[in-house]
Amino acid sequence: MKVFKYLFFALLFLLAAFLAYGFFILEDEVQVKRSIKIDRPAKMVYQAINSMHTFNRWSPWADMDPNAKYQITGPTTGVGSKMAWQGNQDVGSGTQEIIEVKENQMIKTELFFDGQGDDPSWATLQIVDQGDSVVVDWVFEADFNGNILGRYFGLMMDDMLGPQYEKGLTKLKALVESQKVYDFSMISIENVRPQTILYVSSQANTNSDVSAVLEQAYGQIMSTITANGLETAGMPMAITRSWNAGDWVFDAAIPVDVDGIELVEDNPVKLGNTYSGKAVKYIQLGSYDLAEASYEALEAYLVDQGLEKNGDSWEVYVNDPATVEETAIETHIFYPIK
Questions:
Q1: Which domain holds residue 140?
Q2: Can you give the pLDDT at residue 154?
Q3: H helix or E strand, kind and range, residue 280
Q4: Is the pTM here over 0.70, yes or no?
Q5: Spatial CA neighbour of 214 closest among 293, 291, 328
Q6: In a shared domain, residues 207 and 328
Q7: pLDDT tens track for 7-58
Q8: Residue 150 in contact with residue 144, Cβ under 8 Å?
Q9: Is residue 13 in a domain?
Q10: What are φ and ψ of residue 290, in 5° steps?
């Protein structure tokens, strides 16, 4: 009986020590932190993390359960963007919602894990700007509010969560650094006034006959201008109507100084007006072959600034390529925006 008595008191002592250590020594608040350097501007990192819609592109848990179910609600970006997930024992289930943001500096999310009570945890991604690069700190915080078992669980948090944070930051770095850095110095936003134009609806394949089609269309327009004693009021332009697999459907146009004109029905030259309103303008210097990169930069700028297109784009050919060096060829590309 003495053995059981001693065993009872030993267990009682251990339990008391366990409770005393958990209550007096261990802390309620637990923090796990991992960091990584990303060689891209702060804005690019912020755009990658400021949405639950893109979280699984770099999440360390996305590959751990390909059959996990996700529900994304709330706004596309910023406060209120929310994810609910249900997965296997490796990823569990719960919700994560963006509750605070500072543009290009940080986002903070609130997490609830199913089966772990009603107390939330928090995860913060902090962006430390270093010019052309940033340091990203991923910080997890929990408060066990006096729960002794939770405090002991907190002792394991760094070993459990730290490696996953390291994987996630590595994936985030690869994702952001795979994206191009664009030079927006040649882009501006302008209020464009309408112009009266004579135009010819045309179509060309960009791999072959663009120059010939443009030359023919501008020739037809100039013949109409001469025949009607008109004067040009601007440089030649091309208004894109559609673009599909290199097939360019467009209106070749020249601004004219006229209010109205009678044109025979079978004349391919028509009278019209250009867009009026706000537009993004890109100044392209150099060969016309740079157009693809120029449009790519314009698209990136729209995304960067949160702008939305509002109609067909157009190009204005500011000078004659036959009279200037190739590097001095100037083309203005416009995107109408809302």
A1: 19-177
A2: 47
A3: strand 277-285
A4: no
A5: 291
A6: yes
A7: 544 454 444 444 444 444 445 567 889 999 999 999 999 999 999 999 999 9
A8: yes
A9: no
A10: -80, -5
Provide the number of structural domains found in the chain: 2
**Do 268 and 129 fall into the same domain?**
no
Copy the structure tokens of residue 143: 């408060």
Q: What is the DSSP string of 54-121?
A: SGGGT-TTTTT-TT-EEEEES-SSSTT-EEEEE--TTT-EEEEEEEEEETTTEEEEEEEETTS-S--E
By CB neighbour count within 10 A (0-12 exposed, 13-18 middle, 19+ buried), where does 181 fall?
exposed
Asked if 330 and 285 count as a contact pair (C-beta separation under 8 A), the reply is yes
CA atoms within 13 A on the CB side of 231: 2
Same domain, 28 and 157: yes
- Whether the per-residue pLDDT at 300 is higher than 70: the answer is yes
| Cβ burial 235-267 (10 Å sphere, 16+ → b, else e) | ebbbbeeeeeeeebebbbbbbbebeeeeeeeee
What pLDDT does 283 receive? 97
Q: What are residue 221's phi and psi, to 5 degrees?
A: -65, -45
Element (H, E) at 205: strand 196-205
If you average pLDDT over each of 2-11, 32-41, 116-125, which comes out highest?
32-41
pLDDT at res. 328: 95
Q: Encode 308-330: b = buried (16+ Cβ within 10 Å), e = exposed.
A: eeeebbbbbbbeeeeeeeeeebe
CA-based torsion, 256, 261, 267, 273: positive or negative: positive
Question: What is the separation of C-alpha 111 from the centre of its chain, rounded to a whole number of angstroms?
Answer: 24
Say what the pLDDT of residue 177 is: 95
| Contact indicator for 198, 253 with CB cutoff of 8 Å | yes
And the tokens for 297?
């930069």
CA distance 10 to 113: 36
* C-alpha span between 312 and 239 (Å, rounded): 7
Query: What CATH number does residue 76 fall under?
Result: 3.30.530.20
